Amino acid sequence: MTDSASAAQVLELDDIQGTVLRQRPSPYVGAYFLLRVDDAADGRRMLAHLAPRVASAARWWEPPDRAWFSVALSHSGLRALGVPQASLDSFPAEFRQGMAARAVRLGDVGESGPEHWDPPLGSTDVHVALSVFAPDEAGLQRVLDDARRALSGLPGVSVIYRLEAEQLPTRRTHLGFVDGIGEPDIEGAGVASILHAGGDHYGYLPGFGPTIKAGEFLLGYTNELGRVAAMPQPGVLGRNGTYVAFRKLHLQVAAFRRYLRDNASSPEEEELLAAKMVGRWRSGAPLVLTPEHDDPDLAADPMRANDFNYRHEDPTGLRCPLGSHIRRMNPRDALTDSIVDVKIHRALRRGTTYGPMLPEGQLEDDGAERGIVFIFMGADLVRQFEFLKTQWANDGDFVGLGTEKDPLVGDNDATGTFTIPRRPIRRRLQQLPRFTITKGGEYLFMPGLRALNWLAELED
């Protein structure tokens, strides 16, 4: 490793969009916006207005206007802003192609295929993606009113999509599970990089695994392969940026509840089955540490809730099945003796819920849109997000499960299985349906703050 590469591990926190390294405080209300730019000059004026309002990783806890703002752009959006062709060509092929063009590879087929996505998701009309979150509705409205006034004077920029995202009263997902546990520890991110879901514990916590090189998530830094990855040019555009996989996922809550009921003999067994599919109880307590019953006190303890591994504590999956959701998405030390280096396939995740809750106990769908907006961030879309989707979510070979898929987010089609190891005879669930339907997605680039200003100052 060169001296310059070593020095690069001191992160430029004031230039990095905060959402890359920091988790959103709880509770929150917010919204996602997709914009189309029909006039490059107006698009650049919009960025000039927004850039000072984006919270950096250094200012995350005291953001401008008490709201958390982030900005990302598609490849067609960079073109619409007037980015030179040489710069456009310096982005990787998968980003230039876009998520819709790679849908089959990702398992977005059938009812999850781009032909069924919510317009304009997946189209070249999506140029800029904005997210804004605040602690309460009043704070959110102040920011939105300011943005509305700014856009009113920019006829060459139009809002083409809006999605409200609000934390549910339960502070859990629509399936009833605590989310946002187990984010990677990033070298140089600072002691506030991990915020426990309860909102009251800062710092590095047990069980988050080995520290990951910053270059796995941010461009311009050394990664786990010992090099600084290629980044878009010029350097001011690429440095401190990251790639984003934006996913709108509809959750079939009623179908999930019915599947649990149909494959269990009691409410208690339904809860155990749900935990086996996810790898945690709904409270967030991990099966590896409490395999027989939920333990909300353990789940609420940030020093214990994530402090486990698989290789020695549960090598055969008797506690947490090998094919469970969390074990697939982060195998931890389970693949130590394999050729797979887990550290080069980690991705940052930010999830927000949308839509109303399905009433407790209701087993029939009410037709409402509800689900999760999943944001995956990393320096390499293929090696991180696409690998997770193609290998860990939609295949089972890496853990000896053949064609079995992730029970929650895999592209199941009601013909698959889910194996639960147990003695004396394993249990194999049949006819696993698809509980998560892709309603849209985009590959985006989230620039650093200097890059946003560079884009705003481009000339025709």
From TrEMBL:
Pfam families: DyP_N. Keywords: Iron, Metal-binding, Oxidoreductase, Peroxidase. The keyword Cell cycle does not apply. Its cofactor is heme b. It comes from the Bacteria. The keyword Aminoacyl-tRNA synthetase does not apply. GO terms for molecular function: peroxidase activity. Belongs to the DyP-type peroxidase family. This is Dyp-type peroxidase.
